[in-house]
Amino acid sequence: MNFLSHYYFDRYNPNSYEVLGSILPDLLKNADKTSNIFPEKNEDKFTQPHEIAILKGWKKHLKVDKLFHNATFFLEHQHQLKLRIKDLLENTPIKPFFAGHIAIELILDHLLLKHQKIDATKLYKHLDNVSKHHLTAFLNLNNVKEQEKFFIFFEMFKKEQYLKSYEDVANISYALKRIFMRIWPNPLTTKQEDTLTQILIDYIFDIEEKFIIIFEQIERQLLND
Question: Which pairs with CB-CB distance under 8 Å and at least 24 residues apart come from 200-204?
Answer without folding.
Answer: 200/103, 200/107, 200/169, 200/172, 200/173, 201/169, 202/84, 203/80, 203/81, 203/84, 203/103, 203/107, 204/107, 204/110, 204/111, 204/169
